[in-house]
Amino acid sequence: MVSLPTLAQETTDRSAGVIEEVMVTAQRRTERLEDVPMAISVVTGSMMERAGMDNIEDISRVAAGVQVNRGGAFSQPAIRGISTLTLGNGLENNVAVYVDGVYQPDAVAINAELANIASVQILKGPQGTLYGRNATGGAIVIDTLAPSDEFEGNVKASYGRFDDTKLQGYVSGPITDNVGFSLAGNWRESDGYIEDVGDDPTSSKDNYDAAPLKSSALRAKLKFTPTEDLDINLGYNYVDYLDARGLAYRIPKYAVLPGGATAKDKVSLNIKGDNAMELNEGSLGINWQTGIGNLAAVTAFAKRKSNSSFDFDGTKIDLVRGESKGNTEYTLQQTLNLNIDSFERLNINVGGMYYDDRYRQENYQSWRYDELQYTYNLQTDAEAFAAYVDATWEFSDDWFLTLGARYSEEQRRGAYQVNNITGAPTPSTDKSKDYDATTPRAVLRYQLDDNSSVYASYTTGFRSGVFNTGIQPDPILYTPVDQEEITAYEVGFKTAQTFYRLSAAAYYYDYTDLQVGITIPNPIGTGVVQSMFNAPQAEVYGAEAEIDVSLGENLNLRAGLAYIHGEYTDFPDTTGVGLDAASQSNISPQFQDWTDQEMARAPEWTANLGIDYTLAVADGELTLSGNVNYSDSYVVQNLSLYGPLAGDAGGANEQRYRQDSFVLVNARADWTSPGGSYSLAVYGDNLTDERYFLTNSGSSLGDYNQYAWPVTYGVSVGYNF
User: Is the CB of residue 673 less than 8 Å from the CB of residue 720?
Assistant: First the structure.
């Protein structure tokens, strides 16, 4: 890389292109990417299309060190090995996701189809000062297209394998001199690739699609500009989403029950998995350029309705299933940020946040052997306040010091009631617990030249404690866990030259009280229950680099490489799913020691490479693009070991539920007519048909898993106006 500037000087005039300037808002103000002292991966809407990205689970295709897997129905991002191992309705991830400045707490809704995207910023490392709650691992900031000054729009339709049909459209423009609008929508339906074998395993006539994909969304914006210094933005977002692949269990190994489907992409279920979710969200955003700086305020209210239904045993025997319809969640949030830029050599952010979330799950039904065992009702409330200040001071030519701190306070309240069908109803249990944290940061940056800098940072993060929302046979087990806290140290380098942009970083994390979901013996009866515990200590360290290169006027390359070492340094006396080789069955729970074991979703090496080339064809432009990403082996979600009885099946201290290393290859050819009005494309995703796990875990019933999409391909047509 050291020799690249010399090469650029020799070739720029003849063949090299020019790297476009990238602006980001990671520090609550608009800045050049190379001036922000943190590791950030930026993906534009066009880059997403060329990489074959449909939703947030595809981010790993273009960002090294980033994984997104499923825990059941819930999408769970991981940045540098920091990810959640708790799942359930009403629980949040520890990578914060924002869309147009609005925090998204729902782990189902965040995976809805992405459309009309302006950019995605992946902020790596704890973001406890400026983003606060649940940004332990980082933040994913998604911005959609704003209303345009001129009338414009597009419509696109595509059709692919598995009867995958997509429609999307966007229209935007002025209504009056100071009022603009935008309207974007998308619709997608697919039969999916998972098939139920039907009641008659000897015939395919009664087979059906077990996990179809259905998604529709509408996003509307209205922008008022009453003065040059004031913007008022009204927004409405509607999402209707169903993708229950993570609930379509197949149990191919160590199964207790006969009759379950064992082949890939086959299941044998009593009921279809259901994680249908409907979101209605309204927002009001204000940007006011005051005499001392910009004041930004976002107010948002959202209502979510969701279902949660699945057949846990994965066979036609109606042994264990759970069904819940009409769960509701209401979220009110208010953020304020004043960016003061009126002082010479000093920039100050002062802000605050109020957050109120209320989740209601009523009449969840637990069935065993086709008989209703019990129902339960759950209410969880979270009310949070935060205030922060963050200042950057150029204390000497080219030297910048940033100091900031945030104080967060959160109260969790919950009510839990179990109605045992064979006994008297239990009284409701009401509990509450308060959490608070101070999350400072300190950053020193030195600007080497106008386009290059180095930095060293100290940052912290906080994730609020929560109550265990899993199904419990008695309210006494409805208990809270402690909050997570993380301290991070990072050094980095960034540069943007004529035809390339390069960034590199190395980091070390000290992580305490990680929240982990674990199966334990029922402390008040027989069987097992799902509970939540805190892993006392973990550490993560690693390094990464990303480069964008313009190899010619029409040839661009993007590459990334990341190394992660993440392990629990103290996690004894826990329980996992062990294997008994003699009986070829699972032992759950089995007491295990997870100290020195690898953290979930922390592959040691990940890499990605993307390239696109544009050439003239039939008086128009043909863009050929390809994307390759590699992931080392990693634990998908369950940290269990084989245990001492596994024999030759696996070592006693070897983690069972791992994904082997794999490579994904995607390609696309997109032709645009002269003038850019029409487009025609062909695409292929996962061209080598690499089968990797979407989810992989186990219980006393057996090891269960489900794969992500196999090879897919299709065509699309579009019209721009």
Answer: no
Instruction: Say whether the peptide bond before residue 77 is cis (omega within 30 degrees of 0).
Output: no
pLDDT reported for residue 16: 52
- Identify whether the C-beta of residue 275 lies closer than 8 Å to the C-beta of residue 239: no
3-state secondary structure of 306: strand
Please state, in angstroms and as integers, the Cα–Cα distance from residue 92 to each residue in 88, 472, 566, 638, following that order: 9, 20, 22, 18
Bridge partners for 234 per DSSP: 222, 284
* CA 201 – CA 214 distance, rounded (Å): 27
As given in the structure block, the two tokens for residue 435 are 């959490």
- 65 or 249: whose pLDDT is higher? 65
Residues 6 or more apart whose Cβ sits within 8 Å of residue 564: 65, 80, 81, 540, 542, 602, 603, 604, 605, 606
Identify the band that residue 3 occupies on the pLDDT scale cut at 50, 70 and 90. Answer: very low
**pTM for the model:** 0.92
Q: Which two tokens stand for residue 167?
A: 């429609």
Give the type of residue at 576: G
The span from the first CA to the last CA of the chain, in angstroms, equals 42
The pLDDT assigned to 7 comes to 32
More confident residue, 421 or 716: 716
Q: Which of 398-412, 526-540, 597-611 has the lowest mean pLDDT?
A: 526-540
705: three-class secondary structure by DSSP:
strand
Alpha-carbon span 451 to 449, nearest angstrom = 5
Give counts: helices (H), strands (E), the chain. Answer: 2, 41
| CA 567 vs CA 125, 531, 601, 607: distances in Å | 17, 22, 11, 20
CATH topology of domain 4-720: Maltoporin; Chain A (2.40.170)
Give one DSSP letter per residue of 6-35, joined into a string: HHHHHHTTTT---PPP-EE-TTSS-EEGGG
120 within 8 A of 57, measured Cβ to Cβ: no
195 token code pair: 């098939």
Domain ranges of the chain: 4-720
User: In the sheet that 693-699 helps form, which strands lie side by side, from edge to edge?
Assistant: 250-253, 702-707, 693-699
Q: Is 283 exposed, middle or buried (0-12, 13-18, 19+ CB in 10 A)?
A: buried
The helix/strand/coil state of 473 is coil
Q: Can you give the three-state secondary structure of 318-385, one letter per residue?
A: CCEEEEEEEEEEEEEEEEEEEEEEEECCEEEEEEEEEEEEEEEEEEEEEEECCEEEEEEEEEEEEEEE
473/375 Cα distance (integer angstroms): 10
User: Which residue type sits at 351?
Assistant: G
Instruction: Determine which helix (DSSP H) or strand (DSSP E) holds 64, and give its type and residue range.
Output: none
Strand ranges in 475-522 using DSSP code E only, listed in sequence order: 484-496, 500-521
Q: Give residue 680's identity as a one-letter amino acid code.
A: L
Where are the strands (E) in 619-661, listed by range?
620-631, 634-635, 658-659
SS3 state of residue 246: helix
* Residue 651, number of CB atoms within 10 A of its CB: 12
pLDDT in tens, 416-455: 888 877 666 667 788 899 999 999 999 999 999 999 999 9
